[in-house]
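Hi support team,

I'm opening this ticket because the web form for multi-chain structure prediction keeps timing out on my end. I have pasted the exact lines I submitted so you can reproduce it. The total is 278 residues across two entries, so I didn't expect it to be a heavy job. Is there a limit I'm missing, or should I split the entries? Thanks in advance, R.K.
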Amino acid sequence: MPLPDAEVARLLDTWPVARLATLRPDGRPHLVPIVFARAAGALWSPIDGKPKAGGTPARVRNVARDPRVALLLDAYEADWRQLWWVRVDGAASLVAGDAAAEAALRAKYPQYRDVPLYAGAPLLIRIEPSAVASWSPAR
Amino acid sequence: MPLPDAEVARLLDTWPVARLATLRPDGRPHLVPIVFARAAGALWSPIDGKPKAGGTPARVRNVARDPRVALLLDAYEADWRQLWWVRVDGAASLVAGDAAAEAALRAKYPQYRDVPLYAGAPLLIRIEPSAVASWSPAR
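Hello R.K., no limit was hit. The queue was backed up. Here is the completed structure from your submission:
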């Protein structure tokens, strides 16, 4: 059954990690874990200073070509009665810096005291949710 | 930098959860967390007895129409030097039961002593890996 709306909102505000699905040039799905924060009605993920495989990340190239993305929040527990997930479908765009998003990211992740918020020029993936679904076992 | 091959193999054998990306009818990505086990060179995920939203799961309908999938294993840690991920791209198919896969799933998940391995008729998603990528920060 779906999670209560207030719980979904709390998770979108506080859960530290999500998995981002974008579309490769040939239409196949691409997956990568991301950090993100909610601000101004959208979800934001920076191209930050964590070490990268090199070059422009695939997620950035993919989003520039096709904005259709999905984002999944969940937690695995050995007690399967405790499982849950929240899925956001949306449209992504690339934004060269945003004060509200940067403040939300720095507030959520103290790691940005040490890790640069941006790997190079300011670049954020902005995800505008079009649908939010959730699941948990009936309890 | 990539994880060592032996570490990737260990994670594919033992990590309890992955996020599966499939393709919706309109080509958008669909995401859901899954349990899985490795057997006979493939990764297997059952349509098990955990409560479902109802009807045939979207992942099953998606895979029946388009076999292209991606699977992501990762762990979030507040210490970002400990982050890692493993991504499997592959082709998925639907299989009506497989003895080796069932044995691997039951060995990996003691939860299947209580939760039915199959929600209805035996049904497994079989993922044949075509590429495996991994990442961890340089240490």
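A quick check on our side: The first helix of chain A runs from residue 5 to 14. Let us know if the file doesn't open in your viewer.
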